[in-house]
Design goal:
2 domains; 17% strand; Rossmann fold; five-stranded parallel beta sheet; 443 residues; alpha/beta; single chain
Protein backbone atom coordinates (compact mmCIF):
# COMPACT_ATOMS: atom_id res chain seq x y z
CA UNK A 1 0.00 0.00 0.00
CA UNK A 2 1.52 3.29 -1.13
CA UNK A 3 1.60 6.40 1.01
CA UNK A 4 -0.92 8.84 -0.45
CA UNK A 5 -1.62 12.46 0.39
CA UNK A 6 -5.36 11.80 0.41
CA UNK A 7 -4.90 10.02 3.76
CA UNK A 8 -4.54 13.39 5.51
CA UNK A 9 -7.79 14.56 3.92
CA UNK A 10 -9.56 11.44 5.23
CA UNK A 11 -8.21 12.01 8.74
CA UNK A 12 -9.33 15.65 8.77
CA UNK A 13 -12.78 14.60 7.57
CA UNK A 14 -13.18 11.94 10.27
CA UNK A 15 -12.09 14.33 13.02
CA UNK A 16 -14.55 17.00 11.95
CA UNK A 17 -17.56 17.06 14.25
CA UNK A 18 -20.83 16.21 12.51
CA UNK A 19 -19.08 15.32 9.26
CA UNK A 20 -21.16 14.47 6.21
CA UNK A 21 -20.77 11.34 4.07
CA UNK A 22 -17.53 11.58 2.11
CA UNK A 23 -17.55 11.29 -1.69
CA UNK A 24 -14.14 10.65 -3.27
CA UNK A 25 -14.24 11.41 -6.99
CA UNK A 26 -11.45 10.89 -9.46
CA UNK A 27 -10.42 9.29 -12.71
CA UNK A 28 -10.72 5.53 -12.86
CA UNK A 29 -7.77 3.48 -11.57
CA UNK A 30 -6.18 6.34 -9.58
CA UNK A 31 -6.26 4.37 -6.29
CA UNK A 32 -9.53 5.56 -4.74
CA UNK A 33 -10.80 2.17 -3.58
CA UNK A 34 -7.56 0.90 -2.08
CA UNK A 35 -6.94 4.18 -0.21
CA UNK A 36 -10.50 4.33 1.15
CA UNK A 37 -10.54 0.70 2.26
CA UNK A 38 -7.14 0.98 3.91
CA UNK A 39 -8.29 4.03 5.84
CA UNK A 40 -11.64 2.51 6.81
CA UNK A 41 -10.14 -0.76 8.03
CA UNK A 42 -7.62 1.10 10.19
CA UNK A 43 -10.17 3.43 11.74
CA UNK A 44 -13.41 1.49 12.19
CA UNK A 45 -14.40 -1.71 13.94
CA UNK A 46 -16.64 -2.78 11.04
CA UNK A 47 -16.48 -1.98 7.34
CA UNK A 48 -19.37 -2.78 5.00
CA UNK A 49 -18.01 -2.72 1.46
CA UNK A 50 -20.45 -2.58 -1.47
CA UNK A 51 -19.00 -2.55 -5.01
CA UNK A 52 -21.84 -1.63 -7.36
CA UNK A 53 -19.87 -2.35 -10.52
CA UNK A 54 -18.87 -5.89 -9.53
CA UNK A 55 -22.20 -6.59 -7.79
CA UNK A 56 -25.01 -4.74 -9.61
CA UNK A 57 -27.49 -6.73 -7.50
CA UNK A 58 -26.54 -4.51 -4.54
CA UNK A 59 -28.60 -1.75 -6.17
CA UNK A 60 -31.73 -3.44 -4.81
CA UNK A 61 -30.65 -2.46 -1.27
CA UNK A 62 -31.52 1.13 -2.21
CA UNK A 63 -34.75 0.71 -4.15
CA UNK A 64 -37.89 2.58 -3.12
CA UNK A 65 -37.60 3.17 0.65
CA UNK A 66 -34.25 4.86 1.44
CA UNK A 67 -34.50 4.92 5.23
CA UNK A 68 -31.27 3.81 6.88
CA UNK A 69 -32.98 1.09 8.91
CA UNK A 70 -34.55 -0.40 5.78
CA UNK A 71 -31.25 -0.31 3.87
CA UNK A 72 -29.48 -2.08 6.75
CA UNK A 73 -32.26 -4.66 6.93
CA UNK A 74 -31.81 -5.46 3.24
CA UNK A 75 -28.02 -5.63 3.48
CA UNK A 76 -27.96 -7.97 6.49
CA UNK A 77 -30.57 -10.24 4.88
CA UNK A 78 -28.45 -10.66 1.75
CA UNK A 79 -25.02 -10.58 3.44
CA UNK A 80 -25.51 -12.42 6.76
CA UNK A 81 -21.87 -12.02 7.79
CA UNK A 82 -22.15 -8.22 7.66
CA UNK A 83 -21.69 -6.84 11.18
CA UNK A 84 -23.26 -3.41 11.57
CA UNK A 85 -22.98 -1.58 14.88
CA UNK A 86 -23.85 2.03 15.61
CA UNK A 87 -20.84 4.30 16.07
CA UNK A 88 -18.22 1.78 14.93
CA UNK A 89 -19.32 0.99 11.36
CA UNK A 90 -18.24 2.60 8.10
CA UNK A 91 -20.11 1.89 4.87
CA UNK A 92 -17.98 2.04 1.72
CA UNK A 93 -19.99 2.49 -1.48
CA UNK A 94 -17.64 1.80 -4.38
CA UNK A 95 -18.34 2.93 -7.98
CA UNK A 96 -21.37 4.84 -6.74
CA UNK A 97 -22.02 6.20 -10.22
CA UNK A 98 -23.48 2.77 -10.98
CA UNK A 99 -26.07 3.20 -8.22
CA UNK A 100 -27.44 6.77 -8.08
CA UNK A 101 -30.02 5.56 -5.52
CA UNK A 102 -27.18 4.95 -3.05
CA UNK A 103 -25.94 8.49 -3.54
CA UNK A 104 -29.45 9.82 -2.86
CA UNK A 105 -29.45 7.78 0.37
CA UNK A 106 -26.46 9.77 1.70
CA UNK A 107 -28.88 12.45 2.88
CA UNK A 108 -30.60 9.95 5.15
CA UNK A 109 -27.35 8.49 6.47
CA UNK A 110 -26.25 12.01 7.44
CA UNK A 111 -29.55 12.82 9.12
CA UNK A 112 -29.45 9.49 10.96
CA UNK A 113 -25.92 10.30 12.17
CA UNK A 114 -25.03 6.85 13.51
CA UNK A 115 -22.83 5.53 10.70
CA UNK A 116 -20.02 6.95 8.60
CA UNK A 117 -20.17 6.57 4.82
CA UNK A 118 -17.36 6.92 2.27
CA UNK A 119 -18.14 6.67 -1.44
CA UNK A 120 -15.93 6.45 -4.50
CA UNK A 121 -16.92 7.37 -8.03
CA UNK A 122 -15.15 7.71 -11.34
CA UNK A 123 -17.68 9.59 -13.43
CA UNK A 124 -19.61 11.70 -10.96
CA UNK A 125 -19.05 14.94 -12.84
CA UNK A 126 -20.05 13.48 -16.20
CA UNK A 127 -23.39 14.22 -17.81
CA UNK A 128 -25.28 11.05 -18.62
CA UNK A 129 -23.68 8.66 -16.13
CA UNK A 130 -27.06 7.85 -14.61
CA UNK A 131 -28.79 6.83 -17.80
CA UNK A 132 -27.85 3.15 -17.47
CA UNK A 133 -29.63 2.97 -14.12
CA UNK A 134 -32.82 4.93 -14.59
CA UNK A 135 -34.28 8.35 -15.11
CA UNK A 136 -32.04 11.08 -13.72
CA UNK A 137 -34.93 12.80 -11.97
CA UNK A 138 -35.72 9.68 -9.95
CA UNK A 139 -32.64 9.99 -7.75
CA UNK A 140 -31.37 13.46 -7.01
CA UNK A 141 -27.86 14.35 -5.86
CA UNK A 142 -28.07 15.07 -2.11
CA UNK A 143 -26.85 18.66 -2.30
CA UNK A 144 -25.70 19.85 1.14
CA UNK A 145 -25.48 16.35 2.58
CA UNK A 146 -22.13 15.15 1.21
CA UNK A 147 -18.48 16.20 1.44
CA UNK A 148 -16.84 15.90 -1.98
CA UNK A 149 -13.07 15.62 -2.45
CA UNK A 150 -11.09 14.93 -5.59
CA UNK A 151 -8.34 12.34 -5.82
CA UNK A 152 -5.70 12.22 -8.54
CA UNK A 153 -3.26 9.59 -9.75
CA UNK A 154 -0.02 9.52 -7.77
CA UNK A 155 1.88 12.78 -8.10
CA UNK A 156 5.65 13.05 -8.40
CA UNK A 157 6.20 13.37 -4.65
CA UNK A 158 4.15 10.22 -4.01
CA UNK A 159 6.21 8.53 -6.74
CA UNK A 160 9.37 9.58 -4.90
CA UNK A 161 8.01 8.11 -1.66
CA UNK A 162 7.24 4.84 -3.45
CA UNK A 163 10.86 4.74 -4.64
CA UNK A 164 12.25 5.10 -1.12
CA UNK A 165 12.87 8.84 -1.14
CA UNK A 166 12.33 10.06 2.40
CA UNK A 167 10.84 13.27 3.75
CA UNK A 168 14.32 14.49 4.64
CA UNK A 169 15.17 14.47 0.93
CA UNK A 170 12.07 16.32 -0.26
CA UNK A 171 12.49 18.86 2.54
CA UNK A 172 16.07 19.34 1.34
CA UNK A 173 14.71 20.17 -2.13
CA UNK A 174 12.28 22.66 -0.62
CA UNK A 175 15.14 24.35 1.22
CA UNK A 176 17.18 24.51 -1.99
CA UNK A 177 14.27 26.14 -3.79
CA UNK A 178 13.59 28.59 -0.97
CA UNK A 179 17.24 29.64 -0.69
CA UNK A 180 17.99 29.27 -4.41
CA UNK A 181 21.05 27.10 -3.91
CA UNK A 182 22.09 24.25 -6.25
CA UNK A 183 21.07 20.71 -5.38
CA UNK A 184 23.87 18.35 -4.32
CA UNK A 185 25.11 16.67 -7.51
CA UNK A 186 24.50 13.10 -6.30
CA UNK A 187 20.92 13.92 -5.32
CA UNK A 188 20.44 15.94 -8.49
CA UNK A 189 21.44 12.94 -10.59
CA UNK A 190 19.11 10.61 -8.68
CA UNK A 191 16.13 12.95 -8.99
CA UNK A 192 16.76 13.36 -12.73
CA UNK A 193 16.69 9.57 -13.11
CA UNK A 194 13.48 9.25 -11.13
CA UNK A 195 11.89 12.06 -13.14
CA UNK A 196 12.48 10.32 -16.48
CA UNK A 197 11.05 7.10 -15.08
CA UNK A 198 8.02 9.01 -13.80
CA UNK A 199 7.44 10.43 -17.29
CA UNK A 200 7.21 6.84 -18.56
CA UNK A 201 5.43 5.10 -15.68
CA UNK A 202 3.17 7.93 -14.59
CA UNK A 203 1.06 7.85 -11.45
CA UNK A 204 -1.47 5.06 -11.91
CA UNK A 205 -0.90 2.86 -8.82
CA UNK A 206 -1.11 -0.41 -10.75
CA UNK A 207 1.55 0.80 -13.18
CA UNK A 208 3.77 1.96 -10.33
CA UNK A 209 3.36 -1.32 -8.46
CA UNK A 210 4.22 -3.35 -11.54
CA UNK A 211 7.30 -1.29 -12.31
CA UNK A 212 8.64 -1.46 -8.76
CA UNK A 213 8.09 -5.22 -8.67
CA UNK A 214 9.38 -6.12 -12.14
CA UNK A 215 11.35 -3.15 -13.49
CA UNK A 216 9.90 -3.99 -16.92
CA UNK A 217 8.65 -1.06 -18.97
CA UNK A 218 6.90 -3.42 -21.39
CA UNK A 219 4.56 -4.80 -18.74
CA UNK A 220 3.89 -1.27 -17.48
CA UNK A 221 2.94 -0.26 -21.02
CA UNK A 222 0.48 -3.16 -21.22
CA UNK A 223 -1.23 -1.99 -18.02
CA UNK A 224 -1.36 1.64 -19.16
CA UNK A 225 -2.88 0.77 -22.51
CA UNK A 226 -5.46 -1.42 -20.80
CA UNK A 227 -6.43 1.54 -18.60
CA UNK A 228 -6.78 3.74 -21.68
CA UNK A 229 -8.98 1.05 -23.25
CA UNK A 230 -11.12 1.06 -20.11
CA UNK A 231 -11.54 4.82 -20.46
CA UNK A 232 -12.73 4.28 -24.02
CA UNK A 233 -15.15 1.61 -22.81
CA UNK A 234 -16.57 4.08 -20.29
CA UNK A 235 -17.13 6.52 -23.14
CA UNK A 236 -19.26 3.90 -24.87
CA UNK A 237 -21.05 2.76 -21.71
CA UNK A 238 -21.93 6.03 -20.01
CA UNK A 239 -22.04 8.75 -22.67
CA UNK A 240 -25.22 9.73 -24.48
CA UNK A 241 -25.63 7.78 -27.73
CA UNK A 242 -25.21 10.81 -29.98
CA UNK A 243 -21.89 11.74 -28.28
CA UNK A 244 -20.09 8.37 -28.19
CA UNK A 245 -18.13 8.60 -31.45
CA UNK A 246 -17.29 12.29 -30.99
CA UNK A 247 -15.94 11.70 -27.48
CA UNK A 248 -13.62 8.97 -28.69
CA UNK A 249 -12.44 11.07 -31.64
CA UNK A 250 -11.65 13.98 -29.31
CA UNK A 251 -9.72 11.75 -26.95
CA UNK A 252 -7.69 10.01 -29.65
CA UNK A 253 -6.70 13.36 -31.20
CA UNK A 254 -4.90 14.64 -28.09
CA UNK A 255 -1.38 13.25 -28.80
CA UNK A 256 -1.40 14.75 -32.31
CA UNK A 257 -2.87 18.05 -31.07
CA UNK A 258 0.14 18.38 -28.76
CA UNK A 259 2.55 17.69 -31.63
CA UNK A 260 1.88 21.04 -33.29
CA UNK A 261 4.19 24.01 -32.72
CA UNK A 262 1.27 26.03 -31.35
CA UNK A 263 -0.54 23.46 -29.27
CA UNK A 264 -3.94 25.16 -29.12
CA UNK A 265 -6.68 22.52 -29.27
CA UNK A 266 -8.38 22.78 -32.67
CA UNK A 267 -11.63 21.01 -33.45
CA UNK A 268 -10.80 20.92 -37.17
CA UNK A 269 -7.78 18.76 -36.28
CA UNK A 270 -10.12 16.05 -34.99
CA UNK A 271 -11.84 15.68 -38.31
CA UNK A 272 -11.71 17.81 -41.46
CA UNK A 273 -14.19 20.69 -41.09
CA UNK A 274 -14.83 19.71 -37.47
CA UNK A 275 -16.51 22.49 -35.52
CA UNK A 276 -16.81 23.49 -31.90
CA UNK A 277 -20.56 22.92 -31.88
CA UNK A 278 -19.97 19.31 -32.94
CA UNK A 279 -17.28 18.46 -30.40
CA UNK A 280 -17.34 20.94 -27.50
CA UNK A 281 -19.69 18.80 -25.41
CA UNK A 282 -17.64 15.68 -26.10
CA UNK A 283 -14.44 17.35 -24.94
CA UNK A 284 -16.23 18.53 -21.81
CA UNK A 285 -17.27 14.93 -21.11
CA UNK A 286 -13.64 13.79 -21.15
CA UNK A 287 -12.60 16.67 -18.91
CA UNK A 288 -15.41 15.99 -16.44
CA UNK A 289 -14.28 12.36 -16.29
CA UNK A 290 -10.88 13.61 -15.06
CA UNK A 291 -8.97 12.21 -18.03
CA UNK A 292 -7.70 15.53 -19.37
CA UNK A 293 -7.02 19.09 -18.21
CA UNK A 294 -7.55 22.29 -20.14
CA UNK A 295 -5.02 25.10 -20.13
CA UNK A 296 -6.64 28.41 -21.11
CA UNK A 297 -5.00 31.25 -22.98
CA UNK A 298 -4.96 34.65 -21.28
CA UNK A 299 -5.81 38.05 -22.70
CA UNK A 300 -3.02 39.61 -20.64
CA UNK A 301 -0.37 38.52 -18.14
CA UNK A 302 -2.04 39.96 -15.08
CA UNK A 303 -3.81 38.72 -11.97
CA UNK A 304 -6.45 37.44 -11.48
CA UNK A 305 -5.65 34.80 -14.05
CA UNK A 306 -9.11 33.27 -14.20
CA UNK A 307 -10.62 36.70 -14.83
CA UNK A 308 -8.34 37.13 -17.87
CA UNK A 309 -8.77 33.73 -19.47
CA UNK A 310 -10.11 33.21 -23.00
CA UNK A 311 -12.78 30.54 -22.69
CA UNK A 312 -12.66 29.39 -26.30
CA UNK A 313 -8.88 29.19 -26.66
CA UNK A 314 -7.07 26.43 -24.81
CA UNK A 315 -4.59 23.58 -24.90
CA UNK A 316 -5.43 20.08 -23.65
CA UNK A 317 -3.11 17.85 -21.63
CA UNK A 318 -3.52 14.34 -20.26
CA UNK A 319 -4.09 14.39 -16.50
CA UNK A 320 -1.38 11.75 -16.06
CA UNK A 321 1.87 11.99 -18.02
CA UNK A 322 2.28 8.21 -18.24
CA UNK A 323 -1.05 7.86 -20.04
CA UNK A 324 0.08 10.34 -22.69
CA UNK A 325 3.36 8.53 -23.32
CA UNK A 326 1.70 5.10 -23.52
CA UNK A 327 -0.39 6.31 -26.46
CA UNK A 328 2.72 6.99 -28.51
CA UNK A 329 4.47 4.31 -30.55
CA UNK A 330 6.62 1.59 -29.00
CA UNK A 331 10.17 2.75 -28.41
CA UNK A 332 9.20 6.20 -27.16
CA UNK A 333 10.00 5.11 -23.62
CA UNK A 334 13.57 4.20 -24.54
CA UNK A 335 13.93 7.46 -26.46
CA UNK A 336 12.91 9.40 -23.34
CA UNK A 337 15.49 7.62 -21.20
CA UNK A 338 18.21 8.07 -23.84
CA UNK A 339 17.35 11.67 -24.73
CA UNK A 340 16.68 10.78 -28.37
CA UNK A 341 13.37 12.61 -28.81
CA UNK A 342 13.21 15.36 -31.40
CA UNK A 343 10.29 17.75 -31.83
CA UNK A 344 7.77 15.87 -29.71
CA UNK A 345 9.84 16.18 -26.56
CA UNK A 346 8.38 19.64 -26.01
CA UNK A 347 4.87 18.18 -25.85
CA UNK A 348 5.92 15.50 -23.38
CA UNK A 349 7.66 17.83 -20.97
CA UNK A 350 4.94 20.46 -21.20
CA UNK A 351 2.47 17.73 -20.24
CA UNK A 352 4.80 16.82 -17.38
CA UNK A 353 4.55 20.34 -15.95
CA UNK A 354 0.77 20.23 -16.48
CA UNK A 355 0.80 16.94 -14.53
CA UNK A 356 2.72 18.59 -11.66
CA UNK A 357 0.52 21.67 -11.52
CA UNK A 358 -2.77 19.86 -12.07
CA UNK A 359 -2.18 17.26 -9.37
CA UNK A 360 -1.34 20.11 -7.00
CA UNK A 361 -4.83 21.47 -7.65
CA UNK A 362 -3.78 24.38 -9.85
CA UNK A 363 -5.84 25.61 -12.77
CA UNK A 364 -3.75 25.86 -15.94
CA UNK A 365 -3.15 28.97 -18.04
CA UNK A 366 -0.79 30.01 -20.82
CA UNK A 367 -0.19 33.13 -22.89
CA UNK A 368 -0.01 33.35 -26.68
CA UNK A 369 -0.24 36.31 -29.01
CA UNK A 370 -0.02 36.18 -32.80
CA UNK A 371 2.91 38.60 -32.67
CA UNK A 372 5.11 35.70 -31.55
CA UNK A 373 5.08 35.86 -27.74
CA UNK A 374 4.14 32.49 -26.27
CA UNK A 375 4.57 31.36 -22.66
CA UNK A 376 4.04 27.68 -21.85
CA UNK A 377 2.27 28.40 -18.55
CA UNK A 378 1.35 31.37 -16.39
CA UNK A 379 0.77 30.86 -12.67
CA UNK A 380 0.25 32.83 -9.50
CA UNK A 381 3.40 32.25 -7.44
CA UNK A 382 4.34 34.13 -4.28
CA UNK A 383 1.41 36.43 -4.96
CA UNK A 384 2.65 37.51 -8.40
CA UNK A 385 1.83 36.70 -11.99
CA UNK A 386 4.65 34.37 -13.02
CA UNK A 387 5.40 33.01 -16.52
CA UNK A 388 6.71 29.44 -16.63
CA UNK A 389 8.65 27.90 -19.50
CA UNK A 390 9.78 24.29 -19.72
CA UNK A 391 12.56 22.79 -21.80
CA UNK A 392 13.21 19.08 -22.23
CA UNK A 393 16.95 19.70 -21.96
CA UNK A 394 18.33 23.23 -21.98
CA UNK A 395 17.32 25.98 -24.30
CA UNK A 396 16.59 29.62 -24.88
CA UNK A 397 13.25 31.14 -23.88
CA UNK A 398 12.91 34.11 -26.23
CA UNK A 399 9.33 34.93 -25.30
CA UNK A 400 10.18 34.99 -21.64
CA UNK A 401 13.07 37.37 -22.26
CA UNK A 402 10.74 39.63 -24.20
CA UNK A 403 8.17 39.66 -21.41
CA UNK A 404 10.76 40.35 -18.71
CA UNK A 405 12.34 43.13 -20.78
CA UNK A 406 9.05 45.02 -20.99
CA UNK A 407 7.45 45.14 -17.53
CA UNK A 408 5.53 48.28 -18.54
CA UNK A 409 3.64 46.19 -21.12
CA UNK A 410 3.41 42.72 -19.57
CA UNK A 411 3.38 43.61 -15.84
CA UNK A 412 5.70 40.71 -14.99
CA UNK A 413 8.47 40.95 -12.39
CA UNK A 414 9.58 37.31 -12.11
CA UNK A 415 9.68 34.17 -14.21
CA UNK A 416 10.64 30.51 -13.92
CA UNK A 417 12.29 28.25 -16.48
CA UNK A 418 12.34 24.49 -15.96
CA UNK A 419 14.85 22.35 -17.82
CA UNK A 420 17.84 20.07 -17.50
CA UNK A 421 19.54 22.51 -15.11
CA UNK A 422 20.48 22.80 -11.52
CA UNK A 423 19.16 25.84 -9.62
CA UNK A 424 20.33 29.23 -10.80
CA UNK A 425 19.21 32.83 -11.18
CA UNK A 426 19.75 35.51 -13.77
CA UNK A 427 18.06 38.67 -12.56
CA UNK A 428 14.29 38.09 -12.46
CA UNK A 429 14.61 34.65 -14.13
CA UNK A 430 14.89 31.62 -11.85
CA UNK A 431 16.08 28.43 -13.57
CA UNK A 432 15.16 25.10 -11.98
CA UNK A 433 15.51 21.39 -12.67
CA UNK A 434 12.34 19.89 -14.13
CA UNK A 435 11.85 17.62 -11.14
CA UNK A 436 11.20 20.64 -8.91
CA UNK A 437 7.87 21.33 -10.60
CA UNK A 438 6.01 19.41 -7.90
CA UNK A 439 7.12 21.95 -5.28
CA UNK A 440 5.06 24.77 -6.80
CA UNK A 441 2.14 24.66 -4.40
CA UNK A 442 2.44 28.20 -3.07
CA UNK A 443 0.20 30.79 -4.65
Amino acid sequence: MFRRKIEKVFEEWKNEKGHKPLVVKGVRQCGKTSSVLDFARRNYGNVIYLDFREHPEYQTFFSANLSVSTIILRITASIPEAKIEKGTTCFVFDEIQDCPQARSALKYFHLDGQYDVICTGSLLGVHGYKQKIGAEDDYSIPVGFEHIVEMYPMDFEEWLWANGIQSIHTEYLRDCLKNEIPVDIALHTRFRELLLLYVIVGGMPESVTNFLQTGKIGSVLTIQRRIVDEYKSDMLKYAAAQDKSHIRECFESIPSQLAREYKKFTFSAIRKNGRSRDYAGSLQWIEDAGIIRRCHNLTITELPLDGNRINGEFKVYMSDIGLLVCQLENGTQADILNGNLLGYKGAIFENLIADFFGKAGRKLYYYHKDGGVELDFVIRWKGKCTPVECKATTGDAKSMKTVLAHPEKYHVEQAVKFGDYNIGRNGPLLTLPLYMGFLFTEE
